[in-house]
Amino acid sequence: MIDQLRRMAAGGRPDFVARVLSLYRENAPPAIDALATAAQAGDWEAAARAAHALKSMSLNIGAEALAEAAGAIERAGRGESGRAGSGRVEAADVEALRALYARSSACLTACLAAGGPAAASPSPPDDADLALLADLRAALEADGLDLAYQPIVDRTGRTVVGAEALARWRHPQLGPIAPSRFVPLAERNGLSAALGAWVMRRALRETADWPIRVSVNMSALHIRQPGFLDDVGRWLREAGCEPGKLTIEVTETAFMGDDGEGERILQALRRLGVRLALDDFGAGYSSLLYLRRFPFDAIKIDRDFVADLGERSDASAIIHAVVAIGRALGKEVIAEGVETPEQHAFLRAAGVNGLQGYLFGRPIAPAAFAALLGGPQPGVGQPGI
What we know:
About 55% of the residues lie in helices and about 15% in strands. The protein is of the alpha/beta class.
């Protein structure tokens, strides 16, 4: 990320780079303060929202350690149900966030000015991580993971129009390993491309006969892998799946400071017939720029805007604006994190095209999802996994 920012500054866009850094410095400390205040008051949902905002802005400038720490607090705050949890945030946690922010801010200044490395080499994984990483690699090679699918429904909430594929891992000795544990482990240790490839191949095989689209998240590293386009075409043919049934979801951080390679890859995917979605829309700094430049078919509204409905007046205004932008640009708009009937009613009236969240269904096994397509309504009698 530092290298991308440095190239942008050298390529005649130092004003944009300065704006990115100033936005980070203006917004990260208040987010940490809001997290601390909410935690002290025992408002875990508000703490989770502040942690999510901090995580998103940290990822935008490459502050992975801070993003990981904020993500852990977000998960604790939301709890197992996705709603307010019982996770504790201690003063030491907040101070750790402040220290990480200070380090990332200083690193940005020094590295961009001096052209040096972005940071010291990351600490090597400990013995437990090394063992788990080896087991994950073996599980991928042996096709030993599973997928769960979360429904995406139309604006009425009654018709399933799509599904998002999510990796699940049941370790033979340790039992279920949370995605929040094994996905970052894969990303930190060069296994994210292999994990992404496994998810897409399995999802295409399992859903080829489903009368809906399936969405798969792809990391920036994976889509830039040599041969990625050829792989996607081959996997579609092997599964007998129409390209238009596959949606690849990416976040804007995948193309921040793009040198043209990302745009070329996305354009090639569109020519292949694959649909593209911009995930977590509104969480970053330059989503509008990417909407204009890249050939996205859909935008997914960041879940924090949905969570803030009824609590913050600007949330409803932002959602109306996003829907208007999507309509003007001819793009589908999907809202994530829908958990209450009141949120559904607002989003339906606002003109959102699709909805995703626990109100309509948790991630479920492929056999259960296949039954769901011809059976009961989403979320009814379908335990999540």
